[in-house]
What does this fold into?
Amino acid sequence: MSLRREQEEIEASILQALKRRGELRWTQLEKHVMRSCSVSVSSYRFRLRMQYLLQRGFVERVRKGVYRITEKGEKYLSLLDPLRRVHRSLPRTNFTYRR
It folds into this structure.
């Protein structure tokens, strides 16, 4: 899986959790994403994706340590979901490089 696909997978997992549960604390959200995401997620990768979503207005900080999805985030999630389905349906290939 490419790096961008992995990033989208983490972002979608964050946004889905916030959409389903409303407001969540950082640690609750991080634990949920680490358990439910199909790619390996470290605290560092989670933090990077959260910063990305916060900077672009897809997620907002309600109060210290508590976050929720915005309308813009819901629209972004609606774009990510079909892409994730397509990516999952594609066959995995192993490329061999020749010199």
Q: What stands out?
A: The first helix runs from residue 3 to 21.
